[in-house]
Amino acid sequence: MEAIKHILIIRLSSMGDVAMTVPVVRLIQRDFPTTKTSILTKPGYTEIFREFKEANIIAIDLKGKHKGLLGLVKLYYELKQLEIDAVIDLHGVLRTNFLKFLWGKNFYQIDKGRKEKEELIKGKDFKQLKTTHQRY
Protein backbone atom coordinates (compact mmCIF):
# COMPACT_ATOMS: atom_id res chain seq x y z
CA MET A 1 0.00 0.00 0.00
CA GLU A 2 1.26 3.45 -0.94
CA ALA A 3 1.92 6.02 1.77
CA ILE A 4 -0.74 8.68 2.14
CA LYS A 5 0.80 12.05 1.32
CA HIS A 6 -2.29 14.26 1.54
CA ILE A 7 -5.43 13.69 3.59
CA LEU A 8 -8.72 15.59 3.57
CA ILE A 9 -10.86 15.77 6.72
CA ILE A 10 -14.52 16.74 6.24
CA ARG A 11 -16.74 18.12 9.01
CA LEU A 12 -19.27 20.73 7.91
CA SER A 13 -21.57 21.28 10.92
CA SER A 14 -22.63 21.76 13.70
CA MET A 15 -20.18 24.06 15.49
CA GLY A 16 -19.73 21.77 18.49
CA ASP A 17 -19.11 18.72 16.29
CA VAL A 18 -16.69 20.70 14.15
CA ALA A 19 -14.81 21.78 17.28
CA MET A 20 -14.61 18.14 18.39
CA THR A 21 -12.58 17.35 15.27
CA VAL A 22 -9.66 19.46 16.54
CA PRO A 23 -8.19 16.61 18.65
CA VAL A 24 -8.53 14.29 15.63
CA VAL A 25 -6.53 16.70 13.47
CA ARG A 26 -3.91 17.01 16.23
CA LEU A 27 -3.52 13.23 16.38
CA ILE A 28 -3.26 12.89 12.61
CA GLN A 29 -0.63 15.61 12.43
CA ARG A 30 1.27 14.12 15.38
CA ASP A 31 1.20 10.55 14.10
CA PHE A 32 1.75 11.42 10.43
CA PRO A 33 3.94 14.55 10.45
CA THR A 34 4.89 14.27 6.76
CA THR A 35 1.28 13.92 5.59
CA LYS A 36 -0.28 17.13 4.31
CA THR A 37 -3.67 17.89 5.89
CA SER A 38 -6.62 19.69 4.33
CA ILE A 39 -9.84 20.40 6.21
CA LEU A 40 -13.19 21.04 4.51
CA THR A 41 -15.73 22.94 6.60
CA LYS A 42 -18.21 25.81 6.45
CA PRO A 43 -16.78 29.35 6.17
CA GLY A 44 -17.97 30.31 9.67
CA TYR A 45 -16.02 27.43 11.21
CA THR A 46 -12.61 27.92 9.61
CA GLU A 47 -11.32 29.83 12.66
CA ILE A 48 -11.76 26.70 14.77
CA PHE A 49 -8.76 25.28 12.91
CA ARG A 50 -6.49 28.33 13.13
CA GLU A 51 -3.91 26.49 15.26
CA PHE A 52 -3.08 24.27 12.28
CA LYS A 53 -0.80 26.67 10.44
CA GLU A 54 0.34 24.04 7.91
CA ALA A 55 -3.17 22.75 7.15
CA ASN A 56 -5.09 23.82 4.08
CA ILE A 57 -8.47 25.02 5.37
CA ILE A 58 -11.12 24.87 2.64
CA ALA A 59 -14.42 26.70 3.07
CA ILE A 60 -17.30 25.04 1.27
CA ASP A 61 -19.76 27.44 -0.39
CA LEU A 62 -23.09 25.64 0.08
CA LYS A 63 -25.15 28.69 -0.88
CA GLY A 64 -23.16 29.50 -4.00
CA LYS A 65 -20.76 27.52 -6.18
CA HIS A 66 -21.07 24.25 -4.20
CA LYS A 67 -24.89 24.29 -3.97
CA GLY A 68 -26.80 21.20 -5.11
CA LEU A 69 -25.54 18.18 -7.03
CA LEU A 70 -23.76 20.21 -9.70
CA GLY A 71 -22.06 22.24 -6.99
CA LEU A 72 -20.85 19.07 -5.31
CA VAL A 73 -19.49 17.80 -8.61
CA LYS A 74 -17.63 21.11 -8.95
CA LEU A 75 -16.31 20.72 -5.39
CA TYR A 76 -15.18 17.18 -6.20
CA TYR A 77 -13.13 18.42 -9.16
CA GLU A 78 -11.67 21.26 -7.06
CA LEU A 79 -10.62 18.77 -4.39
CA LYS A 80 -9.15 16.36 -6.94
CA GLN A 81 -6.87 19.19 -8.13
CA LEU A 82 -5.27 19.15 -4.66
CA GLU A 83 -3.96 15.59 -5.18
CA ILE A 84 -5.62 14.22 -2.05
CA ASP A 85 -4.84 10.55 -1.39
CA ALA A 86 -7.45 9.82 1.27
CA VAL A 87 -10.59 11.37 2.74
CA ILE A 88 -11.85 11.10 6.31
CA ASP A 89 -15.51 12.08 6.39
CA LEU A 90 -16.53 12.90 9.96
CA HIS A 91 -19.85 14.32 8.80
CA GLY A 92 -21.56 11.32 7.19
CA VAL A 93 -24.60 12.90 5.56
CA LEU A 94 -26.24 12.78 2.13
CA ARG A 95 -23.94 15.50 0.77
CA THR A 96 -20.76 13.69 1.83
CA ASN A 97 -22.22 10.35 0.73
CA PHE A 98 -22.42 11.82 -2.76
CA LEU A 99 -18.78 12.90 -2.53
CA LYS A 100 -17.93 9.37 -1.41
CA PHE A 101 -19.70 8.00 -4.49
CA LEU A 102 -17.68 10.32 -6.74
CA TRP A 103 -14.39 9.73 -4.91
CA GLY A 104 -14.38 5.96 -4.89
CA LYS A 105 -11.44 4.46 -3.01
CA ASN A 106 -9.68 5.75 0.13
CA PHE A 107 -12.80 7.49 1.42
CA TYR A 108 -13.38 6.68 5.10
CA GLN A 109 -16.65 7.67 6.70
CA ILE A 110 -17.83 7.88 10.30
CA ASP A 111 -20.36 5.33 11.51
CA LYS A 112 -22.78 7.54 13.41
CA GLY A 113 -24.53 4.54 14.94
CA ARG A 114 -27.95 5.59 13.71
CA LYS A 115 -29.38 2.08 14.00
CA GLU A 116 -28.04 1.66 17.55
CA LYS A 117 -29.48 5.04 18.55
CA GLU A 118 -32.87 4.14 17.07
CA GLU A 119 -32.89 0.83 18.97
CA LEU A 120 -32.03 2.66 22.18
CA ILE A 121 -34.85 5.16 21.69
CA LYS A 122 -37.35 2.38 20.95
CA GLY A 123 -36.20 0.51 24.06
CA LYS A 124 -35.01 -2.52 22.07
CA ASP A 125 -31.38 -2.52 23.15
CA PHE A 126 -30.52 -0.49 26.24
CA LYS A 127 -26.72 -0.16 26.31
CA GLN A 128 -24.03 2.52 26.48
CA LEU A 129 -23.30 3.86 23.02
CA LYS A 130 -20.00 5.17 21.72
CA THR A 131 -19.45 8.90 22.08
CA THR A 132 -18.83 11.04 19.01
CA HIS A 133 -15.15 11.30 19.98
CA GLN A 134 -14.91 7.51 20.08
CA ARG A 135 -16.58 7.30 16.69
CA TYR A 136 -14.12 9.84 15.26
Could you explain the architecture of this structure?
The protein is an alpha/beta fold and 136 residues long. 37% of the residues lie in helices and 16% in strands. It is built from six helices and five strands. The protein has helices spanning 15-19, 22-31, 68-80, 94-103, 114-121, 132-135, and strands at 6-10, 36-41, 56-59, 86-89, 107-109. The chain has a five-stranded parallel beta sheet, sandwiched between helices. Helix 3 (68-80) packs across helix 4. The mean pLDDT is 88.
A few lines on this structure:
With 136 residues, this protein is an alpha/beta fold.
Q: What profile does the largest beta sheet have?
A: 5 strands, parallel
Percent range for helical residues? 25-40%
Number of helices: 6
Number of strands: 5
Write down the overall geometry. Answer: globular
Taken as a percent bin, the fraction of beta residues is 15-25%
| SSE topology string | EHHEEHEHEHH
Distance between the termini: 23 Å
User: Residue-averaged pLDDT, rounded?
Assistant: 88
Structural class: alpha/beta
Q: For the largest sheet, list the strands in their spatial order.
A: 3-2-1-4-5
Question: Which ranges are low-confidence, i.e. pLDDT below 50, for 5 or more consecutive residues?
Answer: none
Global Rg? 16 Å
